[in-house]
Inverse folding.
C-alpha cells in the first residue's frame, strides 16, 4: 500500500467535495435504512486494501452527507471551515500527536499557548486567562464551571478536590431563563442538580433581566450570563450582571458560544460590553471562527482554580518542568487528545484580526438582509436582528412548521425551527464564511416560494 497515493486520492476527493458544495443538495439523500444497508453488513473478517476501503466509504457515505459546509446551510449555529483550518486539520490526523503533554508534541502545545494570547486579545479577555482547548462549548462549560465550583467552594472553606460534594456548602447557580441547555448538562455532570438553579426571567429577546437578579451574596454563587441567545442572538447585559456578581463576590461565567465573537468586531463589540470582566468564558472555534468540528475553548481568569479543578499528574507521565512549557492535560478534562490547536492557529493566521471582524460583520449583514427579504415577502420577523440570528414566522406556528418542512425538502438551503414564546418559529443562523449575498437571496426566494406553496400563507 502506498500511503502517499492514498493521501493524494483523499486530497483530490476533498477538492471535489468542496467544489460541489455549490451545486449538490444541502440535505442528505438517503434514509437510515438505505445508509445502514450501504454501510453495514457483517464484521469484516480479513484485512482490506485501504484504497478500496476509502473508495467504498466515500461511495456509501456520500448520499448520507449533509452539505453543512455549504454557504446555504442555516441550521442550528454552524460554521464552515476556512481552507487553511481544514487543511491544517488534515495535518493534525497525519501528525497524530497526543496533545496531552508538552513532551507528546511541543509544537501542539506551543500553538495552543500562542492562540490563547491571540484569542484573549481578539475577544477582549484579560491577558492572564488560562485556556482549555476542548471539543466545543459543552465541554468548555464543564471545564469552566468545574473551576467555578472549585473556586466558590474554596472561598467557603471547602476543598472540593479533597472532600467531594457530600457535606459541601450548597452552591447556588443563577441562570437566565433562556440559557443554553448545555449549561444545565455541565452542571449536572459536576454534581450540581436542577434544584441548585435560580432562574432569572428573560425579556422578549431572551436576555436575562439584570434588574431581576437575586441578591448574589451570602453563599457560594455562580452566575451564568450569555453572549448570544441561540435563537435570537441577543446578549445579556453583561456589564450589569458583572457589577452585581463582583460586588457580591460571586463567580461570573459567560456562555459566548458564538456571540462572544462580537467582541472581535469594532462595530459590534458594544453588544458584549462588560464581558471581559467575567471570571470564565466559553466559546467555540467551530462556529464563528470557522474551524472544522470539533473545537471550542474554556477561558478562566483564575488559572489556579482552573488547574486545581481539572489538572492531573502520574509518575509514568513526563510532565513539563520548564515554566514556559505547557502540558495541556493540566487544563482540559481530557487526557489523550487531538492537537486541535493547529486548526485554530491556521484559521486565525489566515483570517487575521481584520478578516475575523469582517467575517462576523458580514454574517450579521447577511442576517439583516434575510430579515428584510422575508419581511418584504410577508413573514414576521420575531427578533431584533442584532447579530447573525433571524427568527421568522409565517402566519402561525403550525403554518411555519409546514414552511420549514417544505424548505427542508427542497434542495436550496437548510434550516430548522424552534419554539419561541409559545409558538413554532423558523430560525436562520448565518455563521459560515462561504455564505454570499447571492446565497442569501437565493435561499430567501426558496423560503418564500415554500411559504407561497403552503395554502393559507
Ligand atoms: C449559546 C450556546 N451555548 C452553548 C452551545 C453548545 O455549543 P457546542 O455545540 O459547541 O457544545 C451552543 C450551540 O449552539 C450555543 O448556541
Amino acid at each position: 500500500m502506498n500511503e502517499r497515493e492514498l493521501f493524494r486520492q483523499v486530497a483530490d476527493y476533498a477538492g471535489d467535495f468542496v467544489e460541489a458544495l455549490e451545486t449538490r443538495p444541502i440535505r442528505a439523500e438517503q434514509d437510515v435504512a438505505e445508509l445502514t444497508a450501504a454501510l453495514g453488513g457483517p464484521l469484516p473478517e480479513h484485512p482490506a486494501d485501504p484504497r478500496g476501503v476509502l473508495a467504498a466509504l466515500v461511495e456509501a457515505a456520500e448520499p448520507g452527507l449533509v452539505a453543512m459546509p455549504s454557504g446555504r446551510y442555516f441550521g442550528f449555529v454552524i460554521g464552515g471551515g476556512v481552507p487553511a483550518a481544514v487543511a491544517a486539520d488534515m495535518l493534525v490526523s497525519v501528525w497524530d500527536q497526543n496533545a496531552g503533554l508538552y513532551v507528546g508534541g511541543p509544537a501542539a502545545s506551543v500553538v495552543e499557548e500562542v492562540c490563547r494570547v491571540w484569542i484573549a486579545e481578539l475577544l477582549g479577555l484579560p491577558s492572564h486567562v488560562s485556556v482549555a482547548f476542548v471539543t466545543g462549548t459543552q465541554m468548555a462549560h464543564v471545564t469552566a464551571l468545574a473551576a467555578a465550583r472549585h473556586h466558590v467552594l474554596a472561598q467557603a472553606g471547602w476543598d472540593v478536590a479533597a472532600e467531594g460534594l457530600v457535606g459541601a456548602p450548597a452552591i447556588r447557580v443563577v441562570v437566565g431563563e433562556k440559557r443554553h441547555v448545555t449549561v444545565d448538562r455541565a452542571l449536572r455532570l459536576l454534581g450540581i442538580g436542577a434544584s441548585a438553579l435560580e432562574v432569572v426571567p428573560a425579556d422578549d429577546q431572551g436576555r436575562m433581566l439584570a434588574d431581576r437578579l437575586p441578591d448574589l451574596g451570602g453563599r457560594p454563587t455562580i452566575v451564568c450570563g450569555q453572549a448570544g441567545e441561540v435563537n435570537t442572538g441577543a446578549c445579556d447585559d453583561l456589564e450589569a450582571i458583572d457589577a452585581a456578581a463582583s460586588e457580591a463576590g460571586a463567580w461570573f461565567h459567560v456562555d459566548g458560544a458564538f456571540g462572544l465573537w462580537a467582541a472581535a468586531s469594532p462595530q459590534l463589540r458594544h453588544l458584549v460590553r462588560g464581558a471581559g470582566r467575567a471570571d470564565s468564558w466559553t466559546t467555540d472555534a467551530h462556529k464563528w471562527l470557522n474551524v472544522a468540528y470539533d473545537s471550542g475553548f474554556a477561558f478562566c481568569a483564575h488559572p489556579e482554580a482552573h488547574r486545581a479543578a481539572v489538572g492531573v499528574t502520574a509518575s509514568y507521565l513526563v510532565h513539563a518542568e520548564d515554566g514556559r512549557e505547557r502540558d495541556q492535560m493540566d487544563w482540559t478534562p481530557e487526557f489523550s487528545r487531538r492537537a486541535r490547536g493547529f486548526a485554530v492557529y491556521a484559521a486565525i493566521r489566515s483570517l487575521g484580526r481584520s478578516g475575523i471582524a469582517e467575517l462576523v460583520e458580514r454574517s450579521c449583514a447577511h442576517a439583516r438582509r434575510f430579515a428584510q427579504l422575508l419581511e418584504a415577502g410577508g413573514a414576521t420577523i420575531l427578533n431584533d436582528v442584532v447579530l447573525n440570528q433571524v427568527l421568522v414566522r409565517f402566519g402561525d406556528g403550525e403554518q411555519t412548521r409546514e414552511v420549514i418542512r417544505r424548505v427542508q425538502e427542497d434542495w436550496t438551503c437548510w434550516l430548522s425551527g424552534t419554539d419561541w414564546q409559545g409558538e413554532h418559529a423558523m430560525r436562520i443562523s448565518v455563521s459560515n464564511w462561504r455564505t454570499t449575498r447571492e446565497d442569501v437571496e437565493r435561499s430567501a426566494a426558496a423560503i418564500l416560494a415554500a411559504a407561497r406553496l403552503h395554502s393559507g400563507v
In short: The two ends are 59 Å apart (CA to CA). The chain has two domains: 3-68, 87-346. The mean pLDDT is 97.
